[in-house]
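Retro notes (design track)

What went well: tokenization of the new backbones is finally stable.
What didn't: we kept losing track of which sequence belonged to which structure.
Fix going forward: every design gets posted as structure first, then sequence, in one message. First example under the new rule, 535 residues:
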């Protein structure tokens, strides 16, 4: 069994209270028995040495003193680490990237144990590699510093670390998202991470076994990284109240996130918000419909509980029927299963009652059920009472006007539910403009994508769509690519000032520098004015 205390100031601090992690497949086989075992261990009724093999690890619960100590040590480390050369800090990312490659299988296995379907765990790990690839590092290095030499001065525009950055990852996909923190470290910040009590083990293990060794390898202060499993409300309150904290990276729902961002600003902190998605994928009449349908099935991966999957499709009326037929056929092949099983793509959904409410509202509002809509057990059999999985569901919504009256279209639902909006047929140019406007009026702005074979349509789409941190054309909606951002967006996705999120840029600030030699101050102020006056 893995065992991690709080990691503060480069030291492991064992706790008196622990959170135990039970293998997700064991929870699916025997939910109540697994919960009894977990509670027995956490309440001291079962000794750790008597834990069954399906208990894969434990993490100490940090108290308020350890949360405060982490900020103190981080502040000391930030002063030292921010002075390190940019090349050294980027070397940290390179070492980390190499460690991810070396421990790829270990990372994937741990994510599977925590409940990520195996195919999606590999996808998440590939995203970590793309996010830290050589091309990405080279591009971001170019954004961190620019120098211009003149006869008497060296002029520099550079980005400087903000200081102590605190990171609060989401309840789902904790490992992949928390590893964005390596870029906050590369900016020269110290990083304090709260491992969520619902899923702390992967966060603790990956940060301790990947980022901590990478910091050591480049000579960074060990205190530049702290990781604690702690209570969310009290920890966030401490972060907001502490004068030592500069930035908070927050993952969560849009309503709570926007409110938290306002509290950050009021407390003098910079919020870096990663909130809900509700992405749109547009399919035009000349698209490769087989590939477009394949991309749209990504909406069901992880049961739609991934913020960057397509949540709404807008399909040209000339091909809507054919596309829906292909999509329904593909959706039928996506089945539940244990996370270890190679073909599994669906994850359990905790609130299937909410799914039914959203689906019913769509159908009552005029949408038509194309496929799906049932609760399933882990074998794929229908179970409307106790089924933890939801069948991939497609509904057709006719007309752009009024489509956003439906909850399934207007907001991210976090279910395997894809509304396909079919616009009214009209003159071709007007239809494209109407679709672009529909995309632009989305309240969210994580990713948007387009399928078409017409370069003019591509050009008009890219010229017209202003929202979103990432636009993709004729490509996987969720696939990761080097250089391009993996996170961030506009509107309710990133809050005020939201944009594509490169944490090395978002957790640093611009500073101009002039180093002069042989310059008289009076000449620097008045020489140009004197020359202009005498001209």
């Amino acid at each position: 069994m893995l065992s991690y205390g709080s990691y503060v100031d480069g030291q492991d601090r064992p706790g008196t209270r622990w959170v135990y992690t039970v293998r997700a497949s064991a929870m699916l086989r025997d939910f109540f028995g697994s919960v009894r075992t977990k509670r027995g261990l956490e309440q001291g009724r079962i000794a750790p040495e008597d834990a069954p093999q399906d208990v894969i690890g434990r993490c100490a619960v940090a108290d308020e003193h350890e949360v405060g100590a982490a900020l103190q040590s981080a502040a000391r480390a930030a002063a030292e680490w921010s002075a390190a050369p940019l090349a050294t800090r980027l070397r940290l990312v390179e070492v980390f990237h190499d460690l991810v490659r070396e421990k790829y299988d270990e990372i994937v296995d741990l994510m599977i144990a925590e409940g990520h379907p195996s195919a999606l765990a590999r996808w998440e790990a590939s995203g970590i590699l793309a996010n830290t690839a050589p091309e990405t590092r080279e591009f971001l290095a170019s954004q961190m510093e620019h120098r211009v030499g003149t006869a008497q001065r060296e002029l520099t525009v550079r980005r400087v670390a903000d200081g102590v950055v605190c990171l609060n990852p989401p309840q789902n996909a904790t490992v992949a998202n928390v590893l964005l923190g390596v870029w906050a470290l590369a900016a020269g910040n110290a990083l304090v991470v709260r491992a969520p009590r619902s899923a702390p083990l992967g966060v603790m293990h990956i940060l301790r076994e990947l980022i901590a060794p990478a910091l050591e390898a480049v000579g960074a202060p060990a205190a530049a990284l702290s990781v604690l499993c702690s209570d969310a409300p009290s920890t966030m309150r401490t972060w907001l109240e502490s004068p030592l904290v500069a930035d908070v990276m927050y993952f969560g729902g849009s309503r709570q996130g926007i409110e938290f961002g306002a509290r950050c600003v009021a407390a003098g902190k910079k919020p870096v918000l990663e909130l809900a998605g509700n992405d749109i994928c547009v399919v035009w009449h000349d698209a490769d419909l087989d590939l477009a349908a394949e991309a749209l099935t990504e909406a069901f991966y992880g049961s739609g509980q991934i913020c960057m999957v397509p949540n709404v499709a807008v399909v040209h009326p000339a091909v809507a029927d054919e596309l829906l037929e292909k999509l329904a056929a593909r959706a039928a092949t996506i089945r539940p299963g244990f996370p270890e099983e190679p073909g599994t793509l669906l994850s359990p959904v905790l609130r299937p009652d909410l799914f039914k409410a959203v689906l019913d509202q769509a159908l009552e509002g005029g949408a038509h059920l194309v496929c799906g809509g049932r609760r399933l057990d882990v074998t794929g059999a229908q179970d409307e009472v106790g089924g933890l999985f939801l069948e991939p569901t497609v509904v057709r919504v006719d007309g752009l006007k009024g489509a956003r009256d439906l909850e399934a279209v207007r907001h991210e639902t976090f279910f395997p539910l894809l509304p396909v909006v079919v616009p009214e047929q009209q003159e071709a140019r007007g239809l494209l403009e109407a679709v672009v406007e529909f995309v632009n009026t989305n309240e969210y702005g994580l990713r948007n994508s387009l399928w078409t074979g017409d370069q003019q349509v591509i050009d008009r789409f890219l010229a017209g769509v202003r929202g979103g941190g990432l636009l993709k054309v004729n490509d996987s909606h969720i696939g990761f690519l080097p250089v391009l951002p993996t996170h961030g967006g506009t509107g309710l996705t990133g809050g005020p000032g939201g944009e594509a999120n490169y944490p090395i840029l978002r957790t640093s600030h611009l500073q101009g520098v002039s180093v002069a030699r042989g310059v008289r101050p009076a000449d620097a102020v008045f020489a140009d004015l004197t020359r202009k006056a005498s001209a």
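Added context from the reviewer: The domain at 2-12+61-149+161-275+501-509 is CATH 3.40.605.10 (Aldehyde Dehydrogenase; Chain A, domain 1).
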